[in-house]
Amino acid sequence: MNTFRRGVIGHGLAAGLMTLALTISAAQSGPTGLPAGTRPPNIVFVLADQWRAEAFGYAGNPDVKTPNLDRLEREGVRFVNAVSAMPVCSPMRSSLLTGQRPLTHGVFLNDVPLDPEAVTIAKVLRSAGYDTGYIGKWHVDGHGRADFIPRERRQGFDYWKVLECTHDYNHSAYYADGPELLHWEGYDAIAQTRDAQQYLRDHAQSQKPFVLFLAWGPPHDPYFTAPEKYRAMYDPKTLTLRPNVPAGERANAQKVAAGYYAHCTALDDCFGELRRTLQEAGLAENTLLVFSADHGDMLGSRGAYKKQQPYDESIRVPLLLHWPKGLGVKARQLDAPINSEDLMPTLLGLCGVPIPKSVEGLDYSGYIRGKKNPGDGATVILCPVVFGEWVRRVGGKEFRGVRTTRYTYVRDLNGPWLLYDNQTDPCQTNNLANQPKYSKLQAKLEATLARKLKERHDDFLPGAAYLDKWGYQVDANGKTSVRSPRASK
Questions:
Q1: How far apart are CA 118 and CA 18, in angstroms?
Q2: Can you give the pLDDT at residue 430?
Q3: DSSP secondary-structure letter at 37?
Q4: Contacts by 476-484 with C-beta closer than 8 Å and gap 24+?
């Protein structure tokens, strides 16, 4: 392990204590257990890229067609206020795998490496007797978007059909166990889903539980590359836009939305096929099925696109769970804010597997079963470093904030920046920050944010300080490189 990656461990664990035996023996006390005699469930986690929480039929979107995910929402648990703490691909994925925050695991921008000795969900579950598999987009290796990822950097996943990152969905490559570059046939999400279906069939009679991640590249841009039959479903001129899309941007936003929704419907069909295979293989009643996304997409709101923004279009993500009957969970909506680092401990809790001490997120498994909410009604959102000048051109900046069940409050480096009442102003068009009428509310939210940042030892420094601390370099186009090995203190 190099000096740079020892710095990551220095935040949460001492180097040398990274074996899985010690991980399990050092687990936190009190994870929610399974009912007596219940076999640990399988996990199928489906992760989309850049699919915002609003772009579903169940969420009230009048245009997008998502019948299979709408059904999952009716039959499972939906976290209404799920957010991506740092709405960027690599940071969220690293938090999902480790249960840690971006400034702890060190992946707070794209294309830098997650420590290969990190304690991850796959390593913990494998130690607990699970088979592990990953198919699709990875984006936490940081050694080049098209480079081969050797087994020692696969974070505990054994079955492996992965590329670090591509958005060429119709000419999509991947690696399996060897360095030979392979290619998915046709639209990659369909081919990847078929491979996941075969994985399920192959494991239907196994005596061991399994965890399988299926990570699609769409609906991330390019927006106009879904199969033709899906693109034909959407006429841009008929699409409804959010009121916060500027008038001069509306024609382009409608065009983009049509392509985006085409990807969404293609993925919804893939999800339906995956779920049918779970039923046909006899796995539906002992598999925890999860659907989420790494972050949202502005899609023209405020004249912006993509991510790295504190607004709901960027930070809010879908989070749907469907459970085995033996876990004793009722279908319903939950309003507690849940964040990226909370996913790993929650999944471990639902499986009755001890949670490592390296984890910083909260275990919501008891809450899902109807017990007390482990949170305090607020979760942190952040952007330590803005990368890509295109983000700054549309108002992007370094920020820290809290998203509660009702409010969004955000500071930039100069002080209070945004305050929205998301109940009365769901499109966040009326900024209440620094208005005397809302001074008490702002003070309360500021105190919440200050407390949480203190607990995290987050001094909210300028972005350049974090780049220097971790040895990262970012050019004007947002391309990232590791400048030099540098231990983080």
A1: 7
A2: 97
A3: T
A4: 476/389, 477/388, 477/389, 478/110, 478/387, 478/388, 478/389, 478/390, 478/391, 479/111, 480/109, 480/110, 480/111, 480/112, 480/142, 480/387, 481/111, 482/4, 482/112, 482/113, 482/142, 484/4
Spatial separation of the C-alpha atoms in residues 51 and 82, rounded to whole Å? 13
**pLDDT per residue over 198-220, tens digit each?**
999 999 999 999 999 999 999 99
Q: What is the pLDDT of residues 307-328, one digit of tens each?
A: 999 999 999 999 999 987 766 6
Written as six digits, the tokens of 404 are 């509660």
Measured at the alpha carbon of residue 152, what is the angle toward residues 146 and 154, in degrees to the nearest 5? 55
Catalytic residues: 89, 139
**Distance, CA of 133 to CA of 14 (rounded, Å):** 28
Residue 212: which H helix or E strand, with range? strand 210-219
For 23-73, the pLDDT digits (tens) are 443 343 333 466 666 789 999 999 999 999 999 999 999 999 999 999 999
